[in-house]
Amino acid sequence: MTILPEKKHRVKTRVLRKTLDPLFDETFTFYGVTFSALPDLTLHFLVLSFDRFARDDVIGEAVVPLRGVDPSTGRVHLSQNISKRNMQCESRGELLASLSYQPVSHRLSVVVLKARHLPKMDITGLSANPYVKVNVFYGRKRIAKKKTHVKKCTLNPVFNESFIYDIPPELLPEVSVEFLVVDFDRTTKNEVLGRLLLGLNSPETSGAKHWAEVCQNPRRQISKWHNLSEY
After folding, report:
1. Strand 175-183's sheet: what is its strand order?
2. Is the predicted pLDDT of residue 123 greater than 60, yes or no?
3. How far is residue 3's CA from residue 64's CA, in Å, rounded to a whole number?
4. Helix, strand, coil shares of the chain as percentages rounded to 5?
């Protein structure tokens, strides 16, 4: 559970094993919360299935606004249905990437500039904590992987991070660069917000065209916005 919108307070119950009807009966106390701030706060409950070997799976979530709740009258009992966590989006957003190839040094420069209009991930409607994974493939084999820093609480992150890869010119036709925009989540599995593939075999025309321009214009840094697709 956490208190929105700041997400400064975060607590969790113990794990109850082998049950679909858990009874927790646990108490948490939050300090530094003023009475006047209560109408602007919301309790966000995330129900998880514990996994010893991987990140916990999300069963569902519930949001309880505190507007209209007056705890000064005594103990207040609230109930809320648990909703399945679904990505609340029609579009996956866009990514601005810049590439150039230096034929003399055999170096491919990839710059992740920024993204915009990324989707909200859950019913809280809060911004994601995005970062970008950059994977370089030769054919179907991944030959390099890197990632940017995480940008907190934004759907329009600015990265401005560059990566250099050593690639002989004769391999360029078979090389592709994959960008995965990922929402970092400290509690659960990181979710992919969207994907972009640049290369001659890109499923999107814009991805193949951008890659062709890079190959045909050595030493020129070529930047383009691309729509992200579902991963």
Report:
1. 141-147, 130-138, 175-183, 191-199
2. no
3. 10
4. 10, 40, 45
